[in-house]
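User: My advisor asked me to double-check a structure prediction for WD40-repeat-containing domain protein before group meeting. I don't want to rely on an old file, so could you generate it fresh from this sequence?
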Amino acid sequence: MVEVLNGSSSSQNGKEAARTHAPPPPDYMGHDREEVTRILLQALSDMGYHAAAESVSRDSGFELESPTVAAFRMAVLDGAWGRAEELLSGATLSGDRHQQQTERGNGLVLAPHADRNHMRVWLRQQKFLELLERRETARALIVLRTELTPLCVEQHQKLHFLSSLLMCQSPDDLKKKAAWDGAFGTSREILLSQLSRCISPSVMLPEHRLAMLLQQVKDNQIGQCLYHTSAEPPSLYSDHACDRSQFPHEMLVELDKHSSEVWQVRFSNDGSRLASCGMDRSVIIWRVPTFEVIHTIEASETGEVGNLAWSPDDKMLVSCGRDRYAKIWDTESGDLIRTVERFNEPVSSCVWTRDGSSLIIGTLDKDKSLCQWDLALDSVHVWTRKHRTEDLAISPDGQWLAAMDEQNRLHIYNVATREQEYELELKTRPTSVSISHDSRHLLVNKTDGEAQLIDIASRDVVQRYRGHSGGEFTIRSDFGGANESFVISGSEDGYVMVWHKATGIAVQRLDAHQPRCNSVAWNPADPTMFATCGDDNKIKM
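Assistant: Sure, here is a fresh prediction for WD40-repeat-containing domain protein from the sequence you gave:
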């Protein structure tokens, strides 16, 4: 008896077909045979199995790319700019899907959205930079004047920037100013990737196509898993589903060191500590998972502490007080590092910039409702819009800043330019705002008992979450769980609600605090742990 092994050369799979030399079926499980084969050829090459890719190409009769497309690829990677432009000039424009079936053997075909002049600019810019890198300044100047300028007549700023590079004193200076790593770095590969997006996928496959398809499969399975608690990526060997019993639903411990209402809980970025604050004017830092008190900080003498923000490296913590101060604390020693100058109204919120070099403070002071300070507490910028800021969120990629005012509006700013990108008018007063880990979505909790998921780029509401109750007080919601698959919120009626982020289905409703559950936080390092706090002076894990 011959042993049957998955993937082994002794496998019986397909043996009878091989013996009878039956022709292969016209498709593969309903998929176009040539498309599947070309994707496999690309994947084998990506993984370094070049001999296997050549064997599959030979046996199937299909090629990954036509000789013309392969020549264009090599021309770009070898820096043969004349040859690359010659092939680009001879390229045809892609047609409809039926025409695409015949495109694969017809040389270089551009995608419908492609702009041939833009592609020429990219090629000539690389040529210009490489001449400068080799210190061939005279030839680079000719390229700039006779090849780039005619294509960029309306792009004055671009031409001015390229002209300024002629003054670079060394290749290193050029690379730094141009944010470019040279001819022998990855710049040519990056250029080819940019160009490939303008070429029909029927002749040049998008990069790492099989990996992208497999990731979409994983993302879809995670998105459909209502009780996703595994931080590990799903296996490709089987369909994915998490056990409902592993989803957090039992109280682990109750923390009762606060003497009054607890208004905010925040995990550190590494999940090893938890900070809390509230009406008793103190900030308590707890160790996770033992939940011993590390520090009890008397953060305010005259007013409650309503909000907290950990620095990106977790070494500092900002407290926002109704005493009109924001204070920076050392989380290792518990000592006060600095106090931001006193505002005319309470400080409502604070976020750190991505690099931790400065912080942005929101206040109820209309003259200074949104201010940026560096760590020396020198004012960096003051936004001049006349509204109060009640809550803030900054995107993890450092691009977006969301400021919630008292007039049912959200102000979305570009962090780099500090310009307002747009303003969202809400029908009901919001109570908190968060931004997802992938920096794509806003989560807005509202007093009408609805939380909304808003696409930052399109400004569309993509999901709604219902089942909790709002009120006149701040009720916070947040993202959390494995792959940030869930939305969690406190509630005016004391419950904590958990929804599946993608579908909006309520997967958990737990009796948390009476009379009110004020804030929630999901441990970023443990998808099976979240914290809640409330008006009963307690924190529950």
